[in-house]
Write a structure and sequence with these properties.
Strand order of the largest sheet: 1-7-8-4-3-5
Distance between the termini: 26 Å
Number of strands: 8
Structural class: alpha+beta
CATH class: Alpha Beta
Helix content: 25-40%
Order of helices and strands: EEEEHHEEHEEHH
Largest sheet: 6 strands, antiparallel
Shape: globular
Number of helices: 5
Strand content: 25-35%
Number of domains: 1
């Protein structure tokens, strides 16, 4: 389970250090464009599991094809160095508007990489709707 919030810096050549608690849980990560303005960083097996779910939906619906494209066309496999650093591609740095200060957050089966200012703006808007979101998200039987 990937949880927690960690503040890091974007270094030269798009390099970031993974938070210590996540450095040794996977030798291979997939980074791709995320939703809501962040990047998704998934262990390779979690990325494959997500793609399997989408694939089961079939390719006859345009939304399914588009989701596969969004998840895979700009995805890149990353292997951390011995110090837990990875290099993000420029096109994903541009997509997520990453600047120097970053937030890396655990979101159960993935990490999200956010520009710090953008993350806090997004979080502020979520806070005002927390009860409504919880009520809509939970389905009772």
């Amino acid at each position: 389970m990937l949880i927690g919030k960690f503040y890091h810096n974007l270094e030269g050549n798009g390099r970031i250090s993974l938070p210590k608690r996540f450095r040794n849980i996977s030798k291979s990560w997939i980074v791709t464009r995320g939703l809501d303005g962040c990047l998704f960083l998934l262990k390779e097996e979690n990325f494959q599991n997500e793609l399997n779910k989408i694939t089961k939906l079939g390719f006859s619906k345009k939304a399914n094809r588009d989701l596969v494209r969004l998840m895979t066309n700009e995805a890149k496999e990353l292997t951390p160095d011995k110090n837990g650093r990875i290099n993000l591609p420029d096109y994903l740095i541009d997509f997520a508007q990453l600047k120097k200060s970053l937030v890396i957050v655990g979101s159960l089966n993935r990490l999200e990489i956010w520009d710090q200012e953008r993350y806090h703006q997004y979080l502020d808007q979520l806070e005002s709707k927390a009860e409504d979101i919880a009520e809509q998200a939970y389905v009772t039987e």
